[in-house]
UniProtKB/TrEMBL annotation, chain A:
<dbReference type="InterPro" id="IPR002319">
    <property type="entry name" value="Phenylalanyl-tRNA_Synthase"/>
</dbReference>
<dbReference type="Pfam" id="PF18553">
    <property type="entry name" value="PheRS_DBD3"/>
</dbReference>
<keyword id="KW-0547">Nucleotide-binding</keyword>
<keyword id="KW-0460">Magnesium</keyword>
<dbReference type="InterPro" id="IPR040724">
    <property type="entry name" value="PheRS_DBD1"/>
</dbReference>
<keyword id="KW-0479">Metal-binding</keyword>
<feature type="domain" description="Aminoacyl-transfer RNA synthetases class-II family profile">
    <location>
        <begin position="229"/>
        <end position="502"/>
    </location>
</feature>
<dbReference type="InterPro" id="IPR036390">
    <property type="entry name" value="WH_DNA-bd_sf"/>
</dbReference>
<dbReference type="InterPro" id="IPR040725">
    <property type="entry name" value="PheRS_DBD3"/>
</dbReference>
UniProtKB/TrEMBL annotation, chain B:
<dbReference type="InterPro" id="IPR004531">
    <property type="entry name" value="Phe-tRNA-synth_IIc_bsu_arc_euk"/>
</dbReference>
<protein>
    <recommendedName>
        <fullName>Phenylalanine--tRNA ligase beta subunit</fullName>
        <ecNumber>6.1.1.20</ecNumber>
    </recommendedName>
</protein>
<keyword id="KW-0436">Ligase</keyword>
<dbReference type="Pfam" id="PF18262">
    <property type="entry name" value="PhetRS_B1"/>
</dbReference>
<dbReference type="InterPro" id="IPR045060">
    <property type="entry name" value="Phe-tRNA-ligase_IIc_bsu"/>
</dbReference>
<dbReference type="InterPro" id="IPR040659">
    <property type="entry name" value="PhetRS_B1"/>
</dbReference>
<keyword id="KW-0067">ATP-binding</keyword>
<dbReference type="Pfam" id="PF03483">
    <property type="entry name" value="B3_4"/>
</dbReference>
<dbReference type="Pfam" id="PF03484">
    <property type="entry name" value="B5"/>
</dbReference>
Amino acid sequence: MADGPVAESLLRRLEAGDGGLDSAELAAELGVEHQAVVGAVKSLQALGEIIEAELRSTKHWELTAEGQEIDREGSHEARVFHSVPPAGLPQSELMRLPSSKVGFSKAMSNKWIRVDKNAADGPRVFRAVDSVEDEVQRRLQLVRSGQAEKLGEKERSELKKRKLLTEVTLKTYWVSKGSAFSTSISKQEAELTPEMISNGSWRDRPFKSYNFSARGILPDSGHLHPLLKVRTQFRQIFLEMGFTEMPTDNFIESSFWNFDALFQPQQHPARDQHDTFFLKDPAEALQLPMDYVHRVKRIHSHGGYGSQGYKYNWKLEEARKNLLRTHTTAASARALYRLAQKKPFTPAKYFSIDRVFRNETLDATHLAEFHQIEGVVADHGLTLGHLMGVLREFFTKLGITQLRFKPAYNPYTEPSMEVFSYHQGLKKWVEVGNSGVFRPEMLLPMGLPENVSVIAWGLSLERPTMIKYNINNIRELVGHKVNLQMVYDSPLCRLDVEQGSPQTQETT
Amino acid sequence: MPTVSVKRDLLFQALGRTYTDEEFDELCFEFGLELDEITSEKEIISKEQGNEKAEGASDVILYKIDVPANRYDLLCLEGLVRGLQVFKERIKAPVYKRVMPNGEIQKLIITEETAKIRPYAVAAVLRNIKFTKDRYDSFIELQEKLHQNICRKRALVAIGTHDLDTLSGPFTYTAKRPSDIKFKPLNKTKEYTACELMNMYKTDNHLKQYLHIIENKPLYPVIYDSNGVVLSMPPIINGNHSKITINTRNVFIECTGTDFTKAKIVLDIIVTMFSEYCENQFTVEAAEVVFPNGKSHTFPELAYRKEMVRAELINKKVGIRETPENIAKLLTRMFLKSEVIGDGNQIEIEIPPTRADVIHACDIVEDAAIAYGYNNIQMALPKTYTIANQFPLNKLTELLRHDMAAAGFTESLTFALCSQEDIADKLGLDISATNAVHISNPKTAEFQVARTTLLPGILKTIAANRKMPLPLKLFEISDIVVKDSSRDVGARNYRHLCAVYYNKNPGFEIIHGLLDRIMQLLDVPPGEKKRGYMIKASEGPAFFPGRCAEVFARGQSIGKLGVLHPDVITKFELNMPCSALEINIEPFL
């Protein structure tokens, strides 16, 4: 059973004849719209190799609505001529006829009629010749009967200019038998149904083919935030390397833990109102470990433990000032202090990833808060070479293998080194982290043994994420102005796998 | 990090050779500097003010070099060149000497009035100095760099340099009422009182930043010579009378301040850097400072200090195996003249007055490592054996956020700082009811308080994403902060979970279902039992009346859920019904 009567007739004619047939001709023969034949051709095509259809376009001339009228009733000028009786007609009366507007001037220029302007009852129209040949009607009749080619190019274009003819492009199919030609085709099934499975009819049914180039429908789902996906990976890397996570769930910190404990002097620019958010309420820390505070005071103002100190008047009020922590190193200081209280000393590897706050000028890459990643190793006899070795392993896990180290200055590490990696995209070395060995002036007042060294490094979470996910404005990533579509669309975070982003170019 | 701008050709001339940009960049990297930018005055002006203004400006190539914040000895061309030449072993580090004058020593007498405002002063003389245009510019620029860095914008130390030949000692450093101070300030032709000056400089782009240091004090510091000529009114302005020019031969330098140690360092840096141009190179003429207690001291100190470090310590800290002799050589290249003494393992290191940054053996270790070359050090893995643990709160958070996403909610990441309005007015609360911590110095209203709830951040996220197809289902698991007097700092974080459903219908059942799912995940059964959870009708200004419930779990209230009040919805610039849940997850640890 074919798809419909048109498709069936088409198949029967193809079977009967040899060669093929034209879709427009078939439509004329069947007395149906051409579009109906085209539909049948398309549905047969979708079944596979039943038929072959070749698209052809032909041009032919057709009469416009006005052309059809002239074909039936004669040209406007002829109609004007025939309206004028031999005795003539007042021009005013003639002009009331529908054809007169166009026909009058044409008939005048053909010299078929004349006007007597001096007649008694106003201008009067008379025939100028006895009979006329309506050439326009004759030409249009030729076109209507499909003999447009008998007209000259010039004649056709004149009629076209008068909007009596139009040229029409007709798209038709030249249809012939396909390699799997058959007149007995059945309707294709769209989908497999439970009934077909239970009654086995799927064995005998043809199925419509799928369009595999179309896109599927994305599942309704929740999504994780890209920055936090990267955070998860960094946590994973630290855990793989045997680092224990430090508690960092205290955004509010005293200046003591944030600065003084780190041997950062009280006049240090970072302690300026312009760089740090201080608190109005609660303005001051309520408790400080006073024994330890005294040791810190001494090292700042007088030195000790082999240090000259900074030799200034260290003030407790300054240390009590509360602030929003400017680095997670404040949490590392607390963790190391706790470690120092455990006797005997046991080696430790610590990490943290959490928010820090800076009262900075904001721009496309700087916000007042960002996430800091920090790693710390405390053990006997650690060297700068160890720091570099740990950094190499850490960055290798991020897919960054080309590293070099630059001397740098940090108030609480000495030696200090900035970590650079070669960026293939930018063709230069870019800073990817900062690191160093904590100063004895920080560690010894805590009570850590003298031969214990603590190496540490830090980097921001935002920067590698922006590189990874190709984000230029940090506000699109962090904060409420986030682009949720970006969150929905962001791929998995696989730091060590090439994904064609600038970050992974570094890995090659 | 301070940036020093030097003329490239002048730098190369002083270094005695030229470099390609890449070679010089490499040298900087190795030494711990950073060639930040290659530019010219013309380029700078054209970038900042447009091409027209740059017309006619100098196109001499400038190197902008980032210098570590503790290396005051590298803040000018003279110091940079000396440092690099010694590093490359092209010259030996000069020895800076303090000498007594042939005639009478210059005296600066401090009166006791200074005690309350700016108690310290030190002084020195550069005798028979020869300036050129470039040297003079560098001298002025160094003072500016010192003022901006170690001097903390003149608050700790302020420098005044004077043409000694226009003055006559002894000098007096005192403090007077502003109305009693009257002099012709630098580059002015008229005399002004200190009050008039302070007023005048309020509109001076350069000087206005320093006014606050003395502005509200009853007495202002001032230095006079024996004829009553004003040398300076520190830390604001010098007098015009003793202004130095390119032709000045004898320079009197005074540093006043509130930090004695830093004043001495600043003086040492200036004189060590520029004594290079004195007739007797690297010698500085002493000056005597008499303190209010009658004791007198001679400056500059130019102290050389000896440190003793075992070679083994340096090898062990860096992770290298060098002979003591080699280590002494490495340190000498870093301006720390060193030699092996004693049993052959001890290294004696001389810390020059230019290296105030060296305060501990670890600073010496770093210099040895830099000279050795960081990138030549053999990398090794520490043998530290440890078992890793996650922080329990973060472990729970990680598990929960994955299952929140699996439940169809999308994670947001909002700011911990916000305006008072966000956590109070917009939620129908008074700010005093929030128990929030307040920031004292926010630059904008966005940073007035730390958030006490995650809800405003999520609602703002929705407001910024109104073009996205509905429904919007968002969550966040993160910290909020409240005051808590039981904590050492008087405040603490709580880990909250917040979720919001935003659609054409309020969807309370969806948020309620999410709570049920969270409890299922946390293995908390429904019911009033001790280990169970339940919700009870409640109210809150943020919620629509009758559409709010309090969540109880494990015997305590942990938060609320409900349909948001239309006022809250409108205040966050939203227009659809909305339901929300916010709970503390710490009881589930």
